[in-house]
Amino acid sequence: MPQPPKKISFPHNILIIGFGSIGQGVLPLILRHIDIPKECITIVTADKRGKEIAEEYGVTFIIKPLKQNNYQEILKSHLKPGDFLLNLSVDVSTVDLISFCAENDVLYLDTVIEPWEGGYTDTSIPEAKRTNYALREDALVLRKKYGTTAPTAVLTHGANPGLVSHFVKKALIHIAKDTGQFTNVPQDRAQWAKLACDLHIKTIHIAERDTQICNPRKHLGEFVNTWSVDGFVGEGSQPAELGWGSHEKHFPPDGKRFDFGCTAAIFLGRPGAATEVRSWTPLAGSQTAFLITHGESISLADYFTIGDTKTPTYRPTVHYAYHPSDDTVLSVHEFIGKNFELQKNKRVVTDEIVSGIDELGVLLMGHEKGAYWYGSRLSVEEARRLTPHNSATALQVTAGVLSGVIWAIKNPRRGVIEPDEMPFDEILRIAKPYLGKVMGEYSDWTPLENRNHPLPEDLDESDPWQFKNFRIT
């Protein structure tokens, strides 16, 4: 197993906003790998969850939800120039926090771009403005506003978004070598896009299967998840989004384009939690999964675009294909069956998990060898051996958070930056010791496999990688 990185010194304060499963899981990793006194770490969160873990590690724990009318006062009371704001919250505006950090010389990292509470579900806001696409565009405006030498603000660096962008680059190198097309490791965005184009990558799934089982199992009227209920329900209630490839010939009947920004993505007129697609992971094989909107679906499609953004010469179709734990699937079906009324009881499971793995990776399709999955296969037992207070799912995320925080400390003047723009090899070197078995596997699977059974479908078999051929319900 790769050795974890040595400790890095950070002679400033770290303020953690939000202390759900990811905050609780990343705290011991921060103390293990960053040389910082415990009294220099403060947690500000909305409720008492995780208080006993904060007390276990001797860090300050404050219950004080951040709102539009108090966030600046709270942040100013805990942060000074050179400090780090680690945002692991929900319902707190990413744009407002990054603006504060840029204007007060504070480093920043989050795992998702968030609006203030209600921003995902407020029907008075046009649906195009409630997408991850729109949130990303708003965040990227700050890059122009504050410049590329502003304090580093790392957007969306957990597992996915985050590590999966680095998996894609590693997978491209493997495919290039295995097909005899490798020359040198690309050094910039244009070279990476050219490599993907030369390899004929048409579609990239962020393909995940979570088989973790908890005891007790889900009960009626309860939403169970292995990382966050509020986070998953929020993104699952947003419109389904995906990066839209240049090879696509059939536009979805309920598909909608954006008339602003990079135009690398589209969205569907339905929530992601109510949209299913066909995908594949090595252990699960062929499966249906939820097309949940995620930042990497947009940023990766944008990053690998060649030519004009509206009529690109090349761009892959990119989307998340998420099959959560069985109890979470049941929770989603109950949630949708109640017309998106969230269950009264919410349970994030960590210690209750008795077995299972999270298989998280990227599935690159269309190249000479068919399909190639590359990623992390981590069991809950191994996660517990590696570090406390983590499930398999949580540790994959916290490994991404840790690697992003360390990189930001080493590179404090990079402005607003996305995972796709960061050095994949350096990030994976930090994260890999916590990812279990990191591996790749080729497959001849396509979304057309067994599609004529039990009932025939209207399929275009000329190109199995078109979005039309995915199963959407």
Describe this structure in words.
The protein is α/β, with parallel strands linked by helices. The chain is 30% helix and 24% strand. It has 2 domains: 8-154, Rossmann fold (3-Layer(aba) Sandwich), CATH 3.40.50; 163-392 and 425-469, 2-Layer Sandwich (Dihydrodipicolinate Reductase, domain 2), CATH 3.30.360. The protein has helices at 21-33, 51-57, 71-78, 94-104, 132-146, 163-178, 189-198, 229-237, 295-303, 326-337, 380-386, 392-410, 424-431, and strands at 8-9, 14-17, 34-35, 41-45, 60-63, 84-87, 107-110, 153-154, 203-210, 213-214, 222-225, 239-243, 255-257, 265-271, 276-281, 285-290, 317-323, 345-348, 353-355, 357-367, 370-379, 416-417, 437-443. Helix 1 packs across helix 12 (392-410), helix 4 (94-104) packs parallel to helix 5 (132-146) and helix 6 crosses helix 13.
